[in-house]
Design brief:
heterodimer, A: about 240 residues, mainly alpha, two-stranded parallel ribbon, 6 helices, B: about 250 residues, Ubiquitin-like (UB roll), Fumarate Reductase Iron-sulfur Protein, Chain B, domain 2, two-stranded antiparallel ribbon
Chain lengths: ~240, ~250
């Protein structure tokens, strides 16, 4: 919604100069991968039922990665999900009729779902603090000293484990303070605001943040939000 | 003790060789606050993995899960089994193209309807993306919004006697769409243009006023009011047309 106007203009400008001569070999490679995957799901000799597997993922996350969680519980979830990940290749789709196949479409997604669930549980286990609605009962404080960052998880092709990286949350206008509710505890950040903000850009770029052609808010009329803004009655 | 529910579900896969339309029966133990969305999922997960039906939002917003529930078109996700008898009959919506079992293609019809009605603001004013939006008074905005709440589920068309007889009939969804643009002061189409668009027997005068659409609309759109408005507008359109033909 927000990016549409920016993106639309860029796409239109690009389309004017571009030629309709795309290289589709990359798309073909990935399409082939999916075709092979469907073939495997329909024709292997596996024994796993995709709906039962999905249910197990849900049960594990509900039991151990809910609003209130502990390291002990999350470890159980991580272990359980790891075991499930080992079983997703053993899924066999029982209905093979042509046309819309809800079991097959579920089966195509199950590996990604299991990986995502694993990332959720593992990421929560690594994050030794309570933040927002995610309450670690064994780490009740919000830890701005060590965890004022965003988790960036990725799963390299073929790897057994995802990679976890952390980037600063972005330039701050104010130092995060006590929210004043819920009896929350906090460990304040040990950097000054200036020190924190100074390293944001480089740290985010190091983790793959792309340059933007139009930073957020740059085309907004200045001070448009003020009651006495001259823009208020602009035609 | 929990009730045992019996589902009689229409089954037919048009892409499967030698498949014949038939009814399959499934049994399910009722749980508290069970809705048909969950019930169908349980049936699919435990009994019939190839059962076809559509769901996206589970919250009465997307309009995908409209089906005939005990003979009435409505949204499955907003139907609690506790409001139904022990035996529940499910059929796909009539009128639309059947994709399989309970799944129909409403998209093609709605897209075609939108094209026929030129369902966009007609204006000669050039759009200036940097200008402040034009203001609209609240009553007008609310009126447009009431019609715009349509989620395109197709229940109204499935319930419509005229639509079953005249496949080109615009249906309540189409008439409601016209109303939405008639209300809109930004649309510059005049009475004559509206008249040519909808004063036919596949438009507003095809409606024979049984108002089943109004009865079944899951979003409680003010269809009755919208149709009355369009008919009144059309009457004044007739006057314009007659005057132009110099018959008055």
């Amino acid at each position: 919604v927000v990016a549409g106007m920016v993106v639309g203009r860029k796409v239109a400008a690009y389309a004017k100069t571009a030629e309709l001569n795309a290289n589709v070999s990359l798309a073909e490679t990935f399409a082939k991968e999916q075709v092979d995957k469907i073939d495997h799901l329909l024709n292997n000799s596996g024994t796993e039922n995709v709906f039962a597997l999905k249910d197990e993922i849900g049960q594990l996350l509900t039991a151990h990665a809910h609003i209130f969680r502990t390291g002990e519980g999350l470890e159980k979830a991580v272990k359980g999900l790891k075991a499930i990940l080992g079983r997703v290749n053993n899924v066999k789709v029982s209905s093979t009729a042509p046309g819309m196949n809800p079991e097959l479409s579920q089966a195509l997604r199950i590996e990604g779902m299991a990986k995502q669930a694993y990332i959720i549980a593992k990421g929560a286990l690594l994050r030794t603090e309570s933040r927002g609605a995610h309450t670690r009962e064994d780490y009740p404080a919000r830890d701005d000293k060590n965890w004022l960052n965003r988790t960036l998880a990725s799963w390299p092709a073929g790897a057994d484990e995802p990679e976890f990286n952390y980037e600063p949350v972005g330039p701050l206008d104010l130092p995060p303070g006590d929210r004043g509710y819920g009896g929350g505890q906090m460990i304040p950040m040990d950097l000054s605001l200036e020190e924190y903000n100074a390293k944001v850009d480089a740290a985010q770029k190091a983790l793959g943040k792309q340059a933007t052609s139009e930073p957020i808010g740059v085309s907004l009329p200045k001070e448009a939000w003020r009651e006495e803004s001259p823009y208020k009655d602009a035609k | 003790m929990a009730r045992k529910l019996t589902f009689k579900i229409f089954r037919y896969n048009p892409t499967k060789e030698n498949d014949e339309p038939h009814i399959d029966t499934f049994e399910l133990e009722e749980t508290p606050r069970l809705n048909l969305f969950t019930a169908l999922h349980l049936i699919r997960e435990k009994q019939a993995p190839d059962l076809m039906y559509d769901f996206v939002c589970r919250a009465g917003i997307c309009g995908s899960c409209a089906m005939m529930i005990n003979g009435r078109p409505t949204l499955a996700c907003r139907t609690l089994t506790s409001d139904l008898a022990d035996t529940i009959e499910l059929y796909p919506l009539p009128f639309f193209k059947l994709l399989g079992d309970l799944s129909v293609d409403t998209g093609v019809w709605f897209h075609d309807m939108a094209k026929r009605l030129e369902s966009w603001i007609h204006t000669t004013k050039e759009f200036d993306p940097t200008a402040v939006e034009e203001r609209m008074d609240n009553a007008t905005a609310n009126k447009i919004y009431e019609s715009e709440r349509c989620i395109e589920c197709g229940c109204c068309v499935a319930a419509c006697a005229t639509a079953q007889v005249y496949p080109d009939f615009l249906g309540a969804a189409g008439l409601n769409r016209i109303g939405r643009f008639m209300f809109d002061p930004r649309d510059t189409r005049g009475e004559q243009e509206w008249f040519e668009l909808v004063s036919t027997d596949i438009g507003v005068f095809g409606c024979i006023g049984m108002m089943a659409c109004d009865d079944v609309c899951p979003k409680d759109l003010p269809l009755l009011e919208v149709f009355s408005y369009i008919r009144r507008k059309m009457n004044s359109g007739v006057k314009v047309a007659v005057k132009e033909m110099d018959l008055a």
